[in-house]
Design a protein that fits this description.
mainly alpha; Arc Repressor Mutant, subunit A; 5 helices
Length: 78
Amino acid sequence: MLDPELVSAAMAYGESPLTPRESTVLTQAARGATAEEIASHLHLSPGTVRNYLTGAIAKTGARNKIDAVRIAQDAGWL
């Protein structure tokens, strides 16, 4: 069973513009993790994590990472 509202929302937003890594980083950020914590968890440098966050922010048209998380969650991308 699929929730009709969820299916409708997913169709309205289309496919996620985020790469798998951007989605992973944004999901970690949604949980409140800092760039340093995400970097440690994913075995990346903090600068790389910030680059992924910047990419996610740009692709979602967000103002900041919190806004990017909200937009991606509302679209069903996270």
